[in-house]
Amino acid sequence: MPLYRSSSEPSEPLVAPAIVAAFDGWIDAAGASTVAATAISSGGDRIVTFGPDVLYDYRSRRPILDIVDGRPTALVWPELAITRRRLDERDVLVLTGAEPDFRWQELGGDVLELCVRLGVVEWVSLGAIPAAVPHTRSVPILATASRAGLLAEDEQQGPEGLLRVPAACLSTIEIAVAQGGIPTVGFYAQVPHYVQGPYAAATIALLDHTGRHLGVDVPTASLTEDALGQRERLDAAVAADDDSRAYVARLERMTGEEQRLPSGDELASEIERFLRGEGGPSRERE
Q1: Closest Cα to residue 186, out of 195, 199, 173, 204?
Q2: Residue 157: closest CA among 138, 180, 184
Q3: How far apart (Å, rounded) are the C-alpha atoms in residues 105 and 119?
């Protein structure tokens, strides 16, 4: 039995459908990639859902219980679904939700089967990774591709050499899809590792790169105010502390006016820091 069921069949043939996928947790620093996926799918129609009972460990990702006037009334379960939205002249299918705990390989096979059945012509993974970058510069985006020629010439593909990190469920599915013959790319925003909470600037960068790659217009205006407010708060926090100012200035010198592609070792180090739950400037001073 497949892990999914169709919620509703499209009323008309899909036009050049592409899947955009992002899961929460690992790797979704500041929630940037799942917020981007939600923005793309907003107003769309859910066409596929996946059975949560076989995908999630409810003791580590517990459902949310609503209690009203002392009476348990509702449960909200973790979910994974595909939503269809027409953008310009093509269909975008957004696969997003909670990162599954179980049956990753089987899920990859089922998603590939869905891609073939729906006529998917390309796949885009979205993610966000902690990095030694300052919030005062534009958000760098690292790109991946299953073969040469899929990315625009000005995309930063890399890093060069071997980068060995704990895998995400999203990556296992992407590899299964690529092995099935469907072109895949990934866009990963580098989020300043000292940022706590949402980071709209990274979400906007992911949406811009995704829209350009797919040749569609993905609105970002609703996020602009959030990004400006977060920038002002970060500027104020850094300005209030001498060590933080020195730290951000050092990151700016490392980055330079041109975005520098980090090495695999640098990325692995920041990802390990992220997994350990370590912070930013204050940690650097220890």
Answers
A1: 173
A2: 184
A3: 21
Which tokens belong to 113?
A: 């089967």
Quick check: 172 and 10 in contact, CB under 8 A?
no
**Per the structure block, which two tokens stand in for 250?**
């050092």
Asked if 130 and 31 touch (Cβ cutoff 8 Å), the reply is no
Q: Which of 2-11, 124-133, 222-231, 274-283 has the lowest mean pLDDT?
A: 274-283
Contact present, 4 and 47 (Cβ < 8 Å) = no
Amino acid at 218: V
Query: How many CB atoms sit inside 10 A of residue 36's CB?
Result: 33
| CB-neighbour burial class of residue 176 (10 A; exposed 0-12, middle 13-18, buried 19+) | buried
| Alpha-carbon span 74 to 14, nearest angstrom | 35
**pLDDT at position 159:** 78
Round to whole Å and give the CA distance between 5 and 10.
Answer: 14
Say if CB 63 and CB 98 are below 8 A apart: no
Across residues 190-215, what is the average pLDDT?
A: 96
Least confident of 4-13, 138-147, 149-158, 238-247: 4-13
* 169 Cα distance to chain centroid: 12
Own/partner contacts of 113-117, CB < 8 Å, gap of 24 or more, are 113/2, 114/4, 114/48, 114/82, 115/19, 115/177, 115/180, 115/182, 116/180
Please determine, for residue 44, whether its predicted confidence score (pLDDT) is greater than 80: yes
The answer to whether the CB of 224 falls within 8 A of the CB of 34 is no
φ and ψ of 85, to 5 deg: -140, 135
Quick one: DSSP state of residue 28?
B
159: left (phi over 0), alpha (psi -120 to 50) or beta: beta
Cα distance between the two ends of the chain: 53
